[in-house]
Amino acid sequence: MAPHSEILGYWGPPTATIDWCEKNYEVNFYIAEMYNTISNLMMIVPPLWGMIEVINQGFELRFIFCHFLLLVVGLGSWAFHMTLLYEMQLFDELPMVWGTSVLVYCLAVVQKPANNRMFSNGRLAICLAVFSSSFTAVYLLWPQPLLQHASYGVLVLISFAQEINLIRLKGCKVCKKLFIISLSTYLFGFFLWNLDKIFCPNLHSLRNSMSPVLSPFTQLHGWWHCFAGYATYLQVFICIHSNYDFKKGKKETRKLELCQMGFGLRWFKPEKSL
Ligand SMILES: [Zn+2]
Ligand SMILES: [Zn+2]
User: Fold this and answer.
1) Is residue 266 classed as helix, strand or coil in its secondary structure?
2) Domain count, the chain
3) From CA 73, how far away is CA 231, in angstroms rounded?
4) What's the average model confidence in pLDDT over 10-26?
5) Is residue 5 part of a domain?
6) What local confidence, expressed as pLDDT, does residue 122 receive?
7) CATH of the domain at 167
8) What tens digit of pLDDT does each residue of 96-151 get?
9) Relative to the alpha carbon of 20, which ligand is closest?
């Protein structure tokens, strides 16, 4: 646990059950943890772009919801690190679990043929809703961060296992590439998240000896937001691409490729040979 800064800011004393390594109100009176806050832009801007692209590229509209849930986590995390208030911590942590549940659901149903029912796998939808509701109820009564980390972690592991299974079934190269980038980015972010927690006093002394221009780059929790945000954004892409892999017709000539420096998934028509 990070030592609380002596400086009090706009939002008053922190009431959250976790205070991260970044010193509170060091940069701005209105933002408790400046770099841990602004790094959430990586969980806000890409999903906004992703939502627009779902419409532009004509993907199934439910993928807007997947991007939207990542956006909610980004906004919640922004509010949490900006205020360090318990209510805002819940705004970050509860959507992490609910949002990952929805991702697990979406990954599970890409193989199913499209139908008009709201839930093509009702049993799984109920299981995930029961899991997330139980977590929410227990966590509200017993706000142990480890419970949230474990519940979220289990869902993330399930989502990666589902992606491995989808790649195994279809052998899609694009999905494989998306998966490798997503998994390695996520693991690297998680490694930094741990370093930030374990070596916090060392990071503080390192920052004191560094130039103020470079020291923000040592805010490893902020880097976690960037890497985990991007990894999750790519997981939505895997969902979209797998959906295409399983549902494309024989006459489909277009191909869905990763582009825009890894932030876009777009249709490409094969060049006609003359
Ligand atoms: Zn955070
Ligand atoms: Zn694919």
Assistant:
1) strand
2) 1
3) 14
4) 92
5) no
6) 82
7) 1.20.1070
8) 999 999 999 999 998 876 665 667 788 999 999 999 999 999 999 999 999 999 99
9) 1
Rounded to the nearest whole angstrom, what is the distance from the C-alpha of residue 116 to the centroid of ligand 2? 24
* pTM, two decimal places: 0.91
| Residue 221 scores a pLDDT above 60 | yes
The rounded Å distance from CA 175 to ligand 2 centre is 4
Surrounding residues of ion ligand 2, Cβ less than 5 A:
172, 174-175, 241, 245
274 pLDDT more than 60: no
How many angstroms does the Cα of residue 225 sit away from the middle of ligand 1?
6
Binding-site residues from annotation for Ca(2+): 19-20, 22, 24, 33
| 11 occurs within a structural domain | no
Residue stretches of the annotated binding site for Zn(2+): 81, 221, 225
Amino acid at 269: K
| Residue-number span of the structural domain to which 244 is assigned | 34-109+120-266
Q: Would you state the pLDDT for residue 230?
A: 97
First to last CA, the chain: 66
Tokens read off for 159? 């989502």
Phi/psi at 142 (nearest 5 deg)? -135, 80
- Distance, in Å, from the CA atom of 40 to the CA atom of 44, rounded to the nearest integer, reads 6
Residue 4 covered by a domain: no
What is the predicted pLDDT for the residue at 120?
Answer: 76
